[in-house]
Design a protein that fits this description.
single chain, mainly alpha, 0% strand, disordered N terminus
Length: 477
Amino acid sequence: MTERDSPPPTPPLARTGALGPIGGGVDPEPAPRKVIVSWAMWDWAMQPFNTVILTFVWIALYLTSRQFLDPAVRESGLLADGVTYVNCNETQHMNTAYCHGLTDLSEWWGWANLAAGILILLLAPVLGQQADARGNKKKWIVGATVAIALIQFALFFVEADPKYFWFGALAVALGAVVGEIGNVSYYAMLSEVSTPRTVGRVSGLGWGLGYIGGVVALIACIPVLFGLGQSEPLAYKLVAVVCAVWTIVFSIPMFRNVPESPAYADAEKVGLFRAYAVLAKNLKKLFRTNRPAFWFLLAAAVYRDGLAGVFAFGAVLAAQGFGFSFIEVIVFGLAANLVAGVSTIFAGRVDDAIGPRRLIVIALSGLVAMAFIVFALRDLGTIVFWVCGLLLCAFVGPAQAASRGLLTRLTPPSMQGEIFGLYATTGRVASFLSPLAWSLFLAWFGGIVYGVLGIGVVLLIGLVLLLFVKLPPHVRA
């Protein structure tokens, strides 16, 4: 390790934060490029779980598919040719036992997400406070990485049988919990690997590498899926193993090259249960001393639920609502991640140029427009979802990256882990707003395409709330 690569006694990046350099020093020096890239590579390492397991392949094409229906119910969905299954978006089939069975699987997956959201709500903020006080953010990231890898290995044992549904659903939900706990510390380290001038592009680099990693991860899984066949359970089980190995291998740069975070002297060292009292006290303090950050968390809680809904239900909408085939879902996943990755990296520079809130407003406006256009033009078929769906992906990444950067600018350095714990809590409890809106619109109107209106409404409410957040003078809007 060169002198440039090794951290100085008081890391300059640990002295920077949303309120400027800590300790009254001069402007912080940039981090070594190797440290920045190694930090961003954790997004790349985690992406197979997010893209392949949660979104485009394992949940959408395996766990919530007909393979987990009772055999008699599954066979009832066959058309006269004995090979083709009914399209549950067609009115004449919506009330069949087969379509109700598929709906039940998606609903049960939503309940598993609810359980995950509650655990994150209870754990993420206090664990972030503990990481700030004890200076062990990196240790939490390492622990989360190992746990997610083990969970993905465990998915190999999920057989295509209704008896295994809850094992698979709860395992993936637990992975989501662990991933968000890791994200608390990972997000909080953003202020330590960037300066106030570069926080937007560094945040965008991480998100961008994550999305591009999703493209590569999907490509890596294609030989398994097509080699064994899309109806072969072993293909999905092996895909989970590929994702686990990926997570371990590409996390190594973070483990080797990014220094551990410092402990903040003004962050109280207390036990886990006492940390809740400290959290309540600090929230009151945040409300008094940094009201913009407090209100931004509230607005972000709503629109990030909408963003989570885009990921949670996008592949289901494509497959069930627009009749995408297996190969179309995979190709759309590749295109979606590529578009999101490129747009997010580009948006990082736009963030530094025009300010994060302006970028978030532009992205959310585009998302709302695309959601309603998808519904309004649904009768034109798959081309509508291809065009509007990819435009949705072009806006999602920039909104996420700019949100992370804006909160970094707003949050006192000594509270980065704790506030990003709240950020993870409010953003990941998607089983409260987005799935509720999705399910209500389906129940009210009786068609899966109506669910996109529910997601659009959540995003619109979040956008309106964000417009009322007043930023302090030192934070560029």
